[in-house]
């Protein structure tokens, strides 16, 4: 004797707008715009608009009149800039200094990143925290610490006098471009380490095992596997240091003095001491154009997806 089966009863489940496909789409779009608009507004209000104002101000003939007063566009500032060779020489010196600083920072940060990627093991997080500890202090304090070390009565001079290596303090350690280069290399090493570390961590360890099975020595493994696969991180670190260093002005002002001035210091002087905003804007636009060219070159050499994936 078979019992009759009960008819299946399906109770309708109410579908709200949040659970439906269309509802999820609306929620995701709303969430996207809620997260996207505040930083977009912040970027536009405090970066793009001032940049556009500086670009417009570079075509102003002089400082006469109010700030928002309409003026006849003029190329006087750019013609004056292109006719003055000292500004171009200073821009060339700043570019050369930035090149040396970038190369030195990348060369010194590569062993640190290599150690963290392949030998840090379980303590890599702790070592990474130690690397980032200087960021917990003020940038000015870190630069002033080098001023104390390199000064005539600083740590280095005091130690050399104590061990009778010199009799008088060395004045060549501070207030020159060498002090600026040394300080900026120290400042940028932690920044340069991070993209190199990201590139090294993406390398498959099985490649080294396969190379070892084929008889490759460690130096050959490094030259044929590690270095080529880490080049995107190396290039990213180089341009990340080079581009902002060209316009650096805080560090040269503190440890460089008059003999260690860079292109950014001259721009600062035209905006503050000389009160010649149109000419300072023109100098800034020339440096920005050069920076954009470098960014375009960097994007051709570096695939950002290689660092993010």
Brief sketch in words of this structure:
With 309 residues, the protein is mainly alpha-helical.
Strand tally, please? 0
Number of domains: 1
Structural class: mainly alpha
Q: Tell me the name of the CATH class.
A: Mainly Alpha
Mean pLDDT: 85
Please report the distance between the alpha carbons of the first and last residues.
65 Å
Q: What's the structural blueprint in terms of helices and strands?
A:
Layout: H1 21-57, H2 76-83, H3 85-118, H4 124-132, H5 139-150, H6 155-162, H7 177-201, H8 206-213, H9 218-246, H10 250-256, H11 263-271, H12 277-301, H13 304-308
Helix pairs in contact: 2-12, 3-7, 3-9, 5-10, 7-9, 7-10, 9-12, 11-12
Describe this structure in words.
It is a single chain. This protein is 70% helix and 0% strand. By secondary structure, the chain is mainly α. It has one domain (77-308): Orthogonal Bundle (MetI-like fold), CATH 1.10.3720.10. The protein has helices at 21-57, 76-83, 85-118, 124-132, 139-150, 155-162, 177-201, 206-213, 218-246, 250-256, 263-271, 277-301, 304-308. α7 packs across α9. Residues 15-21 have low confidence and may be disordered. It has 13 helices and no strands.
